[in-house]
Write a structure and sequence with these properties.
Blueprint (H helix, E strand, L loop, with lengths): L1 H54 L4 H24 L8 H8 L7 H17 L7 H19 L3 H20 L2 H13 L4 H21 L19 H32 L8 H13 L10 H7 L4 H20 L7 H16 L7 H17 L2 H12 L5 H18 L4 H11 L11 E7 L21 E7 L2 E3 L12 E7 L3 H8 L2
Antiparallel strand pairs: 1-4, 2-3, 2-4
Length: 507
Amino acid sequence: MKISKISKIENKNFKIETSLLFDGILVGLFAGIVGASYRLLIGYSEKLVHYTAEFIKTGFIYKVMLLAILIILALFSGFLLKREPMASGSGIPQVSAEITGRLNPNPLRVLIYKITGGLTASLGGLSLGREGPSIQLGAMSGKLVSRILKKDNIKEKYLITCGASAGLSIAFGAPLAGVLFSIEEVHKQITKKIIICCFSAAVVANIVGQYVFGLTAIFKFPDIPYVEVSIYPWVSLLGILLGIFGTFYNVTIKILFKIYEFLKLNIVFRPQVAFLISFVLFIFYPIVLGSGHSLVEFLIENKFSFMFLLTLYFIKTLFSLISFTSGVAGGIFLPILIQGAILGTLFSNFFDAKYTALFVILSMSGYLTAIVRSPITSIILLFEMTQKLNYFLPIALCCLFAYMTANILGTKPVYEYLLDRILTSNKLEDSEVEMEVEILTTVSNDSFLVGKSIREIEWTKNTLISQIERSGREIVPKGTTVLEANDKLTVIMPKESVDTFLEKFSK
């Protein structure tokens, strides 16, 4: 009888996992089409921007026409922000808030406004990335599929997360990084089920991008010779410096948000600041317009002075942050990588030219780590894009020192800060819709839960222990089940109980 029950449980788990696998494939197909289309549109718009920057040099009248167009684009961006605040910024914090049940946007509405807003900002030359929006577009694609298939709240969270994986996968052509980022930064919990659906979505989305839309790698890196051990102390120093620059970035973004708040601009007129600065840069410094992915090859293939690179870094960084803090649809993910590439080129000026590409790659990963504080994603992302095993160790070392330095300096990771802003904003209050939230927690060795049965424990109101994983085997919890150290508990509760639960049991 006992064996029969175990067999039934295992069979049920197999069916759930198989269902999530097929759901992930479906989300990957949908998110792949949406993400690839968005990536192509942004790519065409950036080409148009750089063509325009060259064209307006031919006459004053063209500069006046450009100014008028940018003002109209800014007003249109503001109108979109007013109509759908959930489509503002990168979208990654919004997805994180939705996973925890705090927000509940209309997926189709967000998709429409995000694509329109992102394209408008790109046409205006703003220094924004397509990767954050791609993650939100993928997440909303997953949510839309969930609504069509009439999934419950818990499974909907899985499909939102695997949609986010597909979004990053299609943006960079890096499925593994897409999975890791969505788990590390969005879902923040790892289970066998979430891995299955995320991998299936990310792989399928990447296939759609490559073989249906013809998308290629976003960056092209030259071959780098074997990395000598003698260079490793410099890699460590570079990581420390990147931690400092990453802290500067996180401090600056807070300052700029406060400046915008001080100006008290109406949401419709708020983007005007960024678009007017863009106009000035169209005339005097067009190299920083757009996301800047073409800059990486440009930096590796040419030699530049120290002052030129330092100036380029600060102008690119400030313009990216001004663009982003204006609220328009667009991300910071890719601009962060570009800024890191500039710092890597700057650092390489003190070494032989053969190390330029290496320091560029290291700086991209380390700088991203310092700002976002997702070291695993940063390491795997650059490793996937370079596809060279001998890069792995120096990348990991650089990220380690960047992460350590940023933590010591004490700034909050950028996406956590952005999430706090969203949740405290009057424009984006928590959803009043009643939702169930699934939390995965592990019973530590020193936890007061060890040795107690489930019925002995005073759980928070309306809390349900749905599953216990022990030594790789999933068991159905009963009131008499005694908890052991390292048990992984799957807990379901109303969203309003989450904070109380975490306060009581996280210790």
